[in-house]
Amino acid sequence: MKKHFTTINVVDFEYEVDDGDLPRVLCMVAYVLDKNLRHIRAIKLWRGEFGKTPPFDIGPDALFVAYSAWAELTCFMVLGWTFPVHVYDLHTAYLAASNILLPHEPDEPRKRPRKRLPDACRAYGIEGWERIDKEAISKDIGEGRWQKYGREYVLEYCEEDVKASTKLLHKQLRGLSRFPAADVPRVLHWSNYGAKSVAQIQARGMPIDMPLWNLVQGNKPAVIRYLLRELDPSYGSDNPIYTPDGKFSYERFEGWLASIGVTAWPRLESGRLDLSGDAFKLMYFIPGIEELHALRDSLSVIVRAKLPIGHDGRNRPSLFPFCTATGRNAHAKSLYNAHAGMRSFLVFPPDKIGVYLDWRTQEIGIAAALSGDEALKAAYRGGDVYHALALISGMTDDCDAKHSAPAPTRSRSTISRCKPTVLRCFASPRGDCVRLASFPAC
User: What is the Cα–Cα distance from 328 to 358, expressed in whole angstroms?
Assistant: First the structure.
């Protein structure tokens, strides 16, 4: 790092934010360090003091450092500032070092370790925040109750995060017995595209069809009744899985499985049924399970109505880049966490189009690259690893994957045939929902 950057800026913002809206920047503290990571000066700015450009170098010879840098770069966008050329995200570096599956006792439930700034600092032996309730203060500031602390206290609180972040940077570059020294080139690569892309996603948000969303919420009981009638395989029985208001019952689900003769279902280490999406997909061969999975995902959006939608009608979910144990985004409160049919709440302006892109069999591509397995590389490059496996296994002798693919079969369920792309609810004069239709894109 010392050979590449003449200035290092360690930065933290505090801001107010309403659910689904963009941050309203309150203050910023930055520590400017020299190429040897020695402190040069501190910069403190309060609302109304921000200029048109950052008060520190963001050019090719400077490094921008922050914890969860996407939040800071979202503030950059709100302020109209240009992004720094180089970004080092302390959070990303910590995840790269700590995202491993540690040994555990099989009879004890595993708890997901938290990865906040204080958690990272404690992991590296850095003390701080002992005399304050950091979570409570952060919540108060975010919800606009910072006045009870005052300007100077909030600036001190912000600076405490910058001090800790600076210490964490030193520790990450040196490494510990528990954590190796940060792989700086990779962390810079991940930070640059991760923080900048997430900040732009947050700034733009995902456009929601607000008339449709409000119509469904206004007719929620009727919508729930329709979905239960169409998708709940236990609907009309003596012990339905769902209550009339759309609440799932674990006990009734377990009882329903037994009543239809299902004797095996994936279970957690605690012994309880596994209700994850992967568990449901594994059991799709059981009639009604695929529909029930779609119902659970859909009702989680409609019933809870916790989708963070800003005053501009844009959904801004928490994306948490690299936060899963496998390095995926741990996004929450997003339409992409729900059944594909729920994405019909997304709507784009008439002069825009929305494209949903995803990596195809990315895990196999990663495995091929890391293992150096030439056969696996060839299968991945061929575009259909499943067909390649069929060739190797002798299940087909057709070298053309397109020709050897089996003809599609039609299922009794629209959801099984194709993904619904439009969801519409038409309200009757008496306030009931007379039609809730899925128009499939087959």
Answer: 12
